[in-house]
Amino acid sequence: MPVSAAKEKTTTVKDRIFTYLRISSSVCLLLFLILKNIDNFREVIHIIGQVSIPFMLVAALFFTANLVIGTFRWDVLLRAQEVGVSKWYLLQSVYVGYFYNNILPSNIGGDFYRVYDISKNRGVELKKSISSALLERFMGLISLSIYLAASFVSIRKLFDRGITTIIIFLAVAYLLFAIVIRPKFFKLDKLFKRVRFLSRFGDKMIAFSETFDIFGKKPGSLALAFFVNMVTQVCVIFCYYFVSLSLGLGMSLFDFFFIVPIIFVVTGIPISIGGLGVRENILVLLLGTFGISNEKALVFSFLVLIVYLFKAFTGGIVYLAKSIFFRTKGFV
Predict the structure, then answer these.
(1) Across the strands, what pairs with 273?
(2) Which of 202, 228, 239, 250 is the most exposed, fewest CB within 10 Å of its CB?
(3) pLDDT digits over 82-104, tens only?
């Protein structure tokens, strides 16, 4: 067997092992929540029976708005690079990307799909599609940081230790993004030239980082994209808030300006599939800190999961339609 084929086979086996581990992690975390509340099963069923359907529909509507408005943000960043793809096609890609978010580790699988989709099926230069996706992520970090800072005054007594961890995580994320867009500042170009196995990547990294210079010349586009990004995050926050209203939890909208960013940060850690299990456990933990009973917090977490899965299911349908009727190329 050729060396390259052997390496590829080894990589595939490793990927499968890690995937199975993440699936197992998701299942175990969900089972933990269920078994923990098995003695209060009747109370959980009673709470489910009192869920307000109209509020749940409004929550789903806000979550849909998050995806639709996010399409406009993506379009703005692409057009800043003189890339024109129809908004309708971008919306399809966003929905399918969300589907991938829920079947791949962490919540960045959708970004990989969107980059792949417009590159393979619409001929967009790869470095331009990657830079727009990365910039979206960075804008997301900034807006989440702003919302965390805004809510810090009211929740700092509840989360003294947790805040430190979150700040460290965000600081590392900012640093990594800075390294990607300004490798010369961190002398990475010189490091890559000195290390033999990294030397072939040096020029590619520098060329990729230079694509971000285009955005520096389009401050209007950046400002508009960032404003849209702030709106998309607010839509998710309203989604969580209306789920809480459907259960009559009595929590304020401001509480979710803290909770939602935490969920986003934690589910970005690739220890489960699409954050499944991690999100639900953290939600129960956070809501308990706000004085919500374990049973209500459990129901809340599963109602949020239903909203996520419904959108993922819709994305799966769009993926099938794109594959069958438009014959687009996917990576599964």
Answers:
(1) 105
(2) 250
(3) 888 889 999 999 998 888 887 76
- What is the C-alpha to C-alpha distance for residues 52 and 33, in angstroms, rounded to an integer? 23
Residue 6 has pLDDT above 50, yes or no: no
Q: Is 19 exposed, middle or buried (0-12, 13-18, 19+ CB in 10 A)?
A: middle
What does the angle CA 247 – CA 49 – CA 260 come to, to the nearest 5 degrees? 30
Tell me the backbone φ, ψ of residue 105, rounded to 5 degrees: -60, 145
Higher pLDDT, 201 or 301: 301
Quick one: how many helices (H) and strands (E) in the chain? 14, 0
Tell me: pLDDT of 134 over 90. Answer: no
DSSP 8-state symbol, 105 = B
| pLDDT of 59 above 50 | yes
CB-count burial class (<10 Å; 0-12, 13-18, 19+) for 168 = exposed
Output the pLDDT for position 10: 47
For the stretch 230-242, pLDDT in tens is 999 999 999 999 9
**Please, are residues 93 and 114 in contact by the beta-carbon 8 Å criterion?**
yes
Which whole-number Å values give the CA distances from 312 to 15, 63, 262, in the listed order?
Answer: 23, 11, 21
Q: What residue ranges do the domains of the chain occupy?
A: 3-325
What 3-state DSSP class applies to 211?
coil
Task: Report how far residue 298's alpha carbon sits from residue 286's, in angstroms, rounded to the nearest whole number.
Answer: 11
Cα–Cα distance measured from residue 266 to residue 145, given in angstroms and rounded to the nearest whole number: 14
